[in-house]
Design goal:
Length: 222
């Protein structure tokens, strides 16, 4: 792909993004502080796969001397999700089998929006893969949560009817230390539901201590 063709694609994605923001959010909800909406969106793009709350967004913007309050931020988060730019994933206490009401994760509907807006510097493939897996699980009809167990995070608890799957997502597990960190989170779960580690292994799927390890390209093709 030539530089010109690549720029044309970024321009097209930017046009779609701005149409979505202006038509579906700014005009629909009569947003007065468009720059603030952009700042909230920028924060979410920079924090894909991180636990997020209105309070920590407010704190970051206040540190940057941007006047804001958490109620306005909460409204803007709702608007961004209503426009299907982001999907909010709540936290789920695996041990207590209850939903946690604060601190969620937000996943971008298409990574192209992020890189058309802020470029590809300091790209984090682990976060990209987690976002891709989240959107694909939602597309497959799963109800999706972030798992919490003994102060450990499980990337996804995916539920559909009587089905439940625990999923960790990682970029590179060639290091034994990284592999152990990812599988240890899953091994703490004591029920019998399937446990999966999705990573860029470039190998056939295999089982490690009862956990199915799958290359992300293989998983996406199924």
């Amino acid at each position: 792909m030539s530089i010109g063709e690549q720029q044309d694609k970024y321009n097209y994605i930017n046009d779609v993004y701005h149409a979505l923001i202006v038509r579906d959010i700014v005009n629909r909800y009569k947003i007065r502080y468009v720059d603030l909406l952009e700042n909230v969106n920028q924060f979410l793009m920079d924090n894909i796969s991180n636990i997020t709350s209105t309070r920590n967004i407010e704190k970051m913007l206040t540190n940057d001397k941007i006047p804001v309050n958490h109620k306005t931020i909460g409204s803007y988060l709702t608007y961004l999700c209503n426009a299907y730019l982001y999907y909010k994933v709540r936290r789920y206490d695996i041990q207590g089998k209850k939903y946690l009401s604060t601190q969620d994760k937000y996943y971008l509907v298409d990574q192209g929006f992020k890189y058309a807006k802020i470029g590809i510097k300091n790209i984090n493939y682990g976060r990209i893969y987690e976002n891709i897996v989240a959107i694909e699980l939602l597309r497959r009809g799963y109800e999706l949560y972030v798992g919490s167990l003994y102060k450990t995070e499980i990337d996804f608890v995916a539920m559909k009817q009587n089905e439940k799957i625990y999923i960790q997502v990682c970029d590179d597990i060639s290091s034994e230390k990284t592999l152990q960190r990812e599988v240890n989170s899953l091994l703490k779960i004591k029920d019998a539901y399937p446990k999966i580690l999705i990573a860029r292994t470039k190998h056939d799927r295999y089982t490690y201590e009862g956990i199915e390890v799958i290359d992300i390209a293989d998983w996406l093709s199924k």
